[in-house]
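The authors assume throughout that readers already know how a fold can be written as discrete tokens. The format is easy to grasp once an entry is in front of the reader. For illustration, here is how one protein appears when written out as sequence plus structure tokens:
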Amino acid sequence: MQITGVDQHHLEHQAGGSFEPTWIPGYPQGTHEVELFEIETDTGLTGYGAMPSFAGGMDFSEPLSYFLLGEDPHDVEGVLRKLDSINLVGPRPWGVEIALWDIIGKDAGKPIYELLGGSASEIPVYASTGEVMPAEERIEYVGDVIDAGVGAVKLRVTEPDHIEIVREVREAYPDLPLMVDANKGWAVRVMEHERQWSFREALEFARGLEDVGDVRWLEEPLPRHDYEQYARLREATDVPIAGGEFNDGIHHFREFVKQGSLDVLQPDAALATGIKRADEVAAMARQHGLEYVPHTWTNGIGFVANLHVMAANDSPWCEFPMEPPWTPDVRDFLLDETVDHEDGVVTPPEGPGLGVEIDDSLLE
């Protein structure tokens, strides 16, 4: 089998409103923009991958063709070695790597999780918020989430005094598992810069979470490459520390493990590792007594790619973005069918490859 074509489609979807994501400071987001990669083969099989986009899109199809045409999509390692050159100067190659796995699964007639040695297990979801919201509004949101059958919530914070938001939510819902995301690992600085926390601020916040109780993890309170400071923080608090969603490649996760930086490894297959490397990070977590719970906040294809790896590695939680107007329908607008949870659990699609179909009308 050989790759015979590489196409890229810039897709844009109006969300029907806007919210203010903590990872794009000062920028209300009301559109969902995606770069969709379509990899064709001489057997007629086509694979799809995707990466987040913005500001009208970025076209990589021509340079990608130089590296991909004539390659066997089954040779994931060989293709990744070639795409490392693209990674040096252009887009990260993980969206393309996902398309290779879609082809491999379709060729084998099996879903990706099965190729990775897993089963279609049910994974509990946690509602992942995207913006900082006053406590009274967030408490109302949590009530709606619980009514929808979801049993855990991740709150966003950006300032140390946002510990009070977490505290008030805990007082309203004393038995609810909470995760907290400071979003200091990275940011898209379109309008303004995010404010970084000092180590002292991160430590004080973590100790505040100890008082709140039943906080499953504190996510990215420090820059994503500060392995040593993460290790210091992890040593100084009882709250588990999570991160790594946007670190690029498996070597970063080896460093997290080597330095004892994290309790929860969170590589997003669409942003940080692709599917093969994500599976390797999951194995690394298992070998060192850590948890593997990837970031999933990208698009329908990215979500499903992560879901296959989670199912193959028995992840304890699945991040499920829920911040209206960012709903599952908006996340999955490029798919024929929305992938939703049922009573607080989600399972990967059972069809071959990714197990999802692209909405053909968008490609026209």
